[in-house]
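Encode chain A's predicted structure.
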Amino acid sequence: MTNLRVGRAAPSPAADRFAAGARSAADAVAPAAIVESARDVSVDATANRIVALTDYPRHVTPHWIGRLIDFDEPCDLAMHLDPLDSAEVVRMLTHRLVEIQSSRMLDAKGGRIASVEREVAYEDVARLRDALERGDERVLSTACYLRVQGRTAAAAEQREARLRGVLAGMMAGVRPAMYEMLPGLLSCLPAGEDHLRRRRNLDTSSAATMFPFGSSHLGMRDGVLLGEDLHNHSLVITDRFHPDQQNANRVVVAASGAGKSYASKVEALRAMVRGVDYLVIDPEEEYGRLCEAVGGQMVRLAGTSQQRINPFDLAPGNDESGRDPLAERVLALQGLLGVMLADPGRTLDQRERGLLDAALYETYRRVGITRDAGTHHRQPPVMRDLLAVLREADDLGLADRLVRYVDGSLGRVFAEHTTVSLDRPLVVFALRDLEEELRPVAMHLVADYVWREVTRTPRPRVLLVDEAWTLMRHADGARFLASIARRARKRWLGLTTVTQDARDFLQSPEGHTILANSASQFLLRQDSSTIAVVAETFNLSRGERDFLLSARRGEALLLTGGNHVALRVVASELEHGLSTTQPAEVAAQRAVAR
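Encoded structure for chain A:
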């Protein structure tokens, strides 16, 4: 009788040699060496210790095992869950109940006191059997292993001792995989194979409490990734416009060079992907490359620029709340003119404000605009029209102070009709080409214009005011910025106030108003001269204070909703290229572009 083998032909010697010289997935992931001992297993000179969770606490809460995620040392958690057949489990539980009941009857017959442990076990078994029969529960064969690592065996042993302490605090216990470290290591790999077989039967409700779905990190279902939690390396994700948030305002406080502009740019890029528009007041024109990359609009306010903003433009007409757009515009113009016309260190007095109020209403009347909403569609006046009205009245010297904004070199900036619009996802108002003394005026002008636009077309927007203290130094400008912080939530607007003058900002009444109306605060590295007022204002602990003094560039403390989260801003290569302000990196990018 002849035996026939049907199959593939045996490989030739040439094929064997070719296969030996080819790279495989195993070659790429396999370690160079594995050394196993009774107490640990070393993989590429890294010592590993594996322990099995054997003693479970009797009373637990959801996510009770989550403290292991917040463990300060590297730790891997492997869970193996195998469902058991419910009918078979019910049969075994019934048999167990018979055994316990027999033991109870023997004790009663002998006059012995019932065992507390046995009575508790009887109740547990009976309850689980009833739940299985109703289909409310299932039983899972569960194994839970933990792996800690160290550069040396002593370091791994020290981390294992700390891990034992954490578990002891949760009324749980572990046993090391003595003489079985390699099977334990294989059981902790993502292959899903359990080689140790240190099992424990748990019902589904108990097993569900072990799943580490959360930790002491800040995360939302939808939001913007801010960075990586420095404590447990989880992702910090926030949504400033979430209904649970009090408002979408944020205060960013940092020393020079700490990375506040970098973090703001990275957040803006990610927020725009989610449909949030960004409006940036940029005193140093740091957002130019970012604006160009996303197809935004750069508005340069300067004497030679063709882009203009007319502060006399009216917001939409009366709505159901009975608003008076003309009265609101007159009040806003008084704030702007207070910044423009007041001497340094003072504000306009009552007589000057009264004169301005009457002059502004007269200026609008001369172009046919009154309190009647039907006249608000007409072309508004410009600053030159107000100057003409003031010159005809006893102007208390206001006309002489206003003339430089009309007939001087600044006339084209502040005294012509509007030529810009906010129809792009990113609009940057660049003030670098303006003189230092004029920047507060321009910042107030832009912030006022943005407020009118968000009233006209509400949608999620963020107004980012960089170097906000430039505007806060003027009383009228500070009051205006504080009023935006108070009212922004109702207009679907988030105000981001960025400053490096922490002491002056936090100690001013308006600064406290902005802070009180900001649901989140973003603190980067602080200077030793300002850390005291920052720590007192934000009620920081000693550790948080020390962290802010030694924080590296991009490391920050986020305060929101009662949470204090230390994080590191992490950007992709593309985001980093658009956000960095390091002169060497910017110069290198320009050289490549040329």
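The chain has four domains: 32-84+138-212, 85-137, 245-308+424-594, 310-417.
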